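=== Given protein ===
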Amino acid sequence: MKNNTVIDEYISAFPEEVQVKLQEFRKTVNKAAPEAEEKIGYGIPTLFLKGNLVHFGGFKNHIGFYPGPGGITEFKDQLADYELSKGTIKFPHSKPLPLDLITKITQFRAAENLKKALLKKQK
């Protein structure tokens, strides 16, 4: 994981209990896609790998995870307990983060981005 002070600053703006969850989330997605670069995109922490990979952000009642529509569609059955929209998953603060699922979704998105980049390169 690359040291990214901008993301550290983003996380430090939240209450302690949310900071802990955001750091846990950050560690999980970075471990799932170690070749990805951290940055701020759309005002929230983002992993970038041949394009935007996943975004996540802290909110009053939940952690928002933005793996894009493909990341949600692929794991829809495993996400039944969470509020979803087209490109968003809301993990409420009242429940533990599903770290294994977050890892799988991030790895799926990394494979999607790498495949897309390869196809683009072949054209």
Observations:
- The CA atoms of residues 28 and 83 lie 20 Å apart.
